[in-house]
Design a protein that fits this description.
six-stranded antiparallel sheet; Flp pilus assembly protein RcpC/CpaB domain-containing protein; signal; 33% helix
């Protein structure tokens, strides 16, 4: 077998390294552009000064206007049920009328006051009597907050977990 001189390729390893380096730079530039686009879309039409300022949480828009969500403390009649709740749980709030002091039991029809509302806090206060119920803080739209306050004044409130 005849002897051949070694084969030499110009650029060899250096050319391969340059190509890989260029691809890395292109990939890094593409990722940087994607991050910039996501950051721009996250702030929406707000300017950079407004982007740092916290906003009030809003519920889905109705007729083009955001519905403001507020925190409402509500006393639930059954304290044991409230101990099952954790922040982030979704609940329905049901109001059942309190029997009038005259002794009659009135209508007795329960009604749903709020559906699918988020539990924000479950304060743990010691020393509450068991029959006094327990407090829970719910995040609800402002109109529902007014309905909850009205129902709490004349009814016993209960929650069901969604």
């Amino acid at each position: 077998m005849p002897q051949f001189a070694p084969l030499r390729v110009r650029g060899g390893r250096h050319r391969l390294r340059r190509t890989v380096r260029r691809r890395r730079h292109a990939m890094a530039a593409g990722l940087a552009m994607a991050v910039a686009a996501l950051a721009a879309s996250a702030t929406g039409s707000r300017g950079p000064a407004e982007a740092d300022r916290p906003q009030a949480s809003t519920a889905p828009r109705r007729e083009g206007k955001p519905v403001e969500v507020v925190s409402v403390p509500v006393r639930i009649a059954d304290g044991a049920t409230v101990r099952l709740l954790r922040p982030g749980d979704l609940v329905d709030v049901i109001a059942s009328p309190v029997a009038p002091s005259g002794g009659g039991d009135g209508d007795g029809t329960a009604r749903v006051v709020a559906t699918g509302v988020r539990v924000e806090k479950v304060p743990r206060v010691g020393g509450e009597p068991a029959d006094a119920g327990a407090l829970v803080v719910l995040a609800v739209p402002r109109p529902v907050a007014a309905a909850l306050a009205g129902a709490a004044a004349s009814s016993r409130l209960a929650v069901t977990m969604c």
